Backbone:
């Protein structure tokens, strides 16, 4: 199970026992926010995207959406989501539980600045009913992320 891979990954930081598992689905931002009783923006959603013949992950706040022009400017390619089958193949996690931990293949992980406005955020942990509370610094460390990027819209005050 993917959650077991995540548990194994988080052992490096003695955080495997901090994974929260719910009796209800947390497969969408809204469901996760409801399960955790937090605002949807604090859900750290992992977006899986094509990168040539491989994939990349962008972790963003629950209220953020990929901004195509910012994404193309940052990465030099058009943002194209993986299909659910491709996401499972590249990450080892099914849609609803995709996270930057315990990945099947080594993929580049980028963190969007939309997350930085929160002291703690909640990424999934490999299943459609799990999450973990992390600071942005912990997410950066545990996800082995490459860097922070600004590729999303819809979350800033207009």
Residues:
């Amino acid at each position: 199970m993917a959650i077991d891979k995540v548990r194994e990954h988080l052992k490096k930081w003695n955080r495997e026992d901090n994974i929260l598992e719910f009796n209800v689905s947390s497969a969408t931002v809204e469901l996760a926010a409801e399960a955790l009783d937090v605002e949807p923006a604090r859900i750290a959603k992992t977006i899986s995207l094509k990168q040539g013949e491989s994939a990349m992950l962008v972790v963003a706040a629950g209220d953020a959406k990929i901004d195509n022009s910012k994404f193309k400017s940052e990465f030099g390619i058009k943002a194209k989501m993986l299909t659910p089958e491709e996401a499972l193949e590249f990450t080892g996690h099914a849609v609803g539980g995709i996270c930057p931990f315990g990945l099947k293949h080594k993929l580049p992980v980028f963190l969007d600045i939309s997350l930085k406005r929160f002291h703690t955020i909640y990424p999934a942990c490999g299943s459609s009913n799990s999450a973990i509370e992390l600071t942005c610094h912990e997410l950066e460390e545990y996800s082995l992320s490459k860097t922070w990027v600004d590729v999303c819209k819809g979350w800033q005050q207009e």
